[in-house]
Specification:
There is one protein chain. The protein is of the alpha/beta class. It has 2 domains: 254 residues, Ribonuclease Z/Hydroxyacylglutathione hydrolase-like (Metallo-beta-lactamase, Chain A); 182 residues, Rossmann fold. It has 13 helices and 22 strands. The protein has a 7-stranded mixed beta sheet with strand order 6-5-4-3-2-1-22. Helix 4 packs antiparallel against helix 5. The longest helix is centred in the middle third of the chain and has 18 residues. The two termini are 15 Å apart.
Length: 450
């Protein structure tokens, strides 16, 4: 009799962050993602400090992307004894080197879960695998990556286990928007699916049209310029940020907006655009990695603040400017710093590129109340708050439905993860409308045989 196969959901269950799923099959214990819980610092800190499993008993970790909510706990695993392979795409490996290091630089020492030494040790364990390349973990356990079209290196993961790969599992925590000028559309994974694990953090949302968003953005930039204010943009390191920057550059070259410097306030001296350029194979139009003026990596209007001296000068900057800083939800790091600094001043404006996650500063700002709590500090809100989700890198309701249909099916069983109550409920409805009868919303720590 073969050993039982199980899935245990340690993170991303009934929440948008903390992605961590343990797969036990073919005699192996494999972790799908190892992400940080993000959002309210007081609520997430305790959850992040206690690992829910023994890293020494794991045989492999497979990462779907480099975002902290998906990969941010890998150095913590290593710090606590994990020393086996961490499988990634080439893009995820290189982007993680920047993103994980940022996590140590942005976090006070007494709050860190790991240090830079752990990040370096983690990077040594990362093994790059190209999209579509099968990797045999055991005799009856094989996986491969497929492009998720979200950020650099993002992937859906197809796993096959059982004799002859008789059980097909597909895990997709996040797919990107189709039609991006930077990344290809998510790759289809057609065929019958025995187990689908699907995330849909924004499966309840709808994107505005890009054309409408461009005019709206031009209007907001002009208004901030007239007030002499700063336009603060919390953003992920790679993906939506670049789409946003490219739009600003195009508007300026067409004479639609005045010249405003675009400051990238990055915690490390590594330009995320440089990391992108190292992977032309991951771009929708590879040749554009080598373009200059007017291309995907145009430096027009761009300035960089990547050390203490630059940041101090940026804080004292007079006159109009666009300041882009991680994190996407505004909960920590340089984005939180600029929000605390600028929210009380009516000259300034905050543009929110992503749909808000439950419990985040972004959610508070979307609620349009008179104050928000940023890293434990109550901050009055007098600045203008402008949601602009057309530049989000996440698939919305109809884009997720299109991806589900691309599987072709049938889909026997689905687990819905990575979403707040509304997003999960909408994804459950979508799956059932698409013919999936067995749909499960796992709770944190819950296990299922398959």
């Amino acid at each position: 009799m073969s050993a039982p196969r199980t899935l245990t959901f340690y993170g991303g269950a009934a929440t948008t962050t903390g992605s961590m799923i343990l797969l036990e099959a073919a005699g192996a214990r494999v972790l799908l993602d190892a992400g940080l819980f993000e959002g309210d610092v007081e609520l997430t800190d305790a959850k992040n400090r206690e690992l829910p499993l023994d890293p020494k008993r794991l045989d492999a970790v497979i990462l779907s992307q480099a975002g902290l909510a998906y990969a941010g706990r890998t150095p913590q695993l290593v710090r606590n004894g994990y020393n086996k392979p961490i499988y990634t795409t080439p893009g995820t490996r290189d982007l993680a080197a920047v993103v994980l290091a940022e996590g140590t630089i942005c976090t006070p020492v007494d709050q860190q879960l790991y240090d830079l030494t752990d990040v370096i040790s983690t990077h040594r364990l990362m093994t790059s695998q190209s999209y579509g390349q099968p990797v045999h973990l055991r005799r009856n356990l094989v996986f491969e990556f497929a492009d998720a079209g979200h950020i650099l290196g993002s992937a859906s993961i197809e796993l096959r286990t059982g004799e002859g790969g008789s059980h097909r599992m597909v895990y997709s925590g996040c797919v990107g928007r189709p039609g991006s000028t930077l990344f290809p559309d998510a790759a289809p994974l057609p065929g019958p699916v025995d187990t689908l694990i699907i995330g849909g953090p924004f499966s309840h949302a709808r994107h505005p049209m890009f054309a409408d968003a461009q005019q709206h953005l031009a209007d907001r930039i002009s208004a901030v310029f007239a007030r002499g204010g700063h336009l603060i943009v919390p953003a992920a390191s790679v993906g939506p940020m670049h789409e946003f920057i490219r739009t600003v550059q195009k508007l300026f070259r067409r004479g639609k907006i005045p010249a405003m410097p675009i400051w990238l306030d990055t915690p490390t001296p590594v330009d995320p655009g440089t990391v992108l350029r190292l992977h032309p194979e991951a771009l929708a139009h590879p040749g554009r990695a080598y373009d200059g003026t007017g291309g995907a990596f145009d430096q027009c209007l761009l300035e960089f603040a990547c050390n203490d001296e630059d940041r101090a000068a940026l804080d004292q900057l007079e006159g109009p400017a666009i300041i882009i800083a991680p994190s996407e939800m505004g909960d920590s790091g340089r984005a939180a710093h600029h929000l605390r600094r600028c929210l009380p001043d009516e000259r300034h404006e905050v543009i929110l590129l992503a749909f808000p996650e439950e419990g985040s500063v972004s959610e508070q700002l979307h609620a349009a109340s008179g104050e928000v709590t940023v890293e434990g500090e109550i901050v009055p809100v007098r600045a203008t708050i402008t949601p602009m989700p057309a530049y989000s890198g996440h698939a919305d309701a109809e884009e997720w439905r299109t991806w589900i249909r691309s599987l072709e099916g049938p889909i026997k069983r689905a687990f819905v993860v990575h979403g707040d109550d509304l997003a999960v409920a909408v994804m459950v409805t979508t799956l059932r409308e698409e013919g999936v009868r067995d749909v499960i919303v796992p709770r944190e720590g819950e296990s299922f045989a398959f």
